[in-house]
Give the backbone structure.
Amino acid sequence: MNGYTTIIKQEDQWWIGWIEEIPGVNCQERSLEKLKETLAVTLKEALLFNKCKKFNPPKTKGEIDEDSSLYQAGSRHGVKI
């Protein structure tokens, strides 16, 4: 995750973390290693989403084409974008 500030804390039995520069990229896991993996995946998805939104904005506010590769990539990770 070069180029981004990652904040990681342990709260009781949970590890929580977020990317300071990208709103919405925050995760919670039981292990530090799993948290790092999840943050990396979430960051990639957020950057892809923002890139697609910038170059191919939805036709109407809040509309996402369910056939797009972005929608399918997000759903593979259990995240419906």
Observations:
- The chain has one domain: 6-76.
- The domain at 6-76 is CATH 3.30.160 (Double Stranded RNA Binding Domain).
- The chain has two helices and three strands.
- The first strand starts at residue 6 and ends at 11.
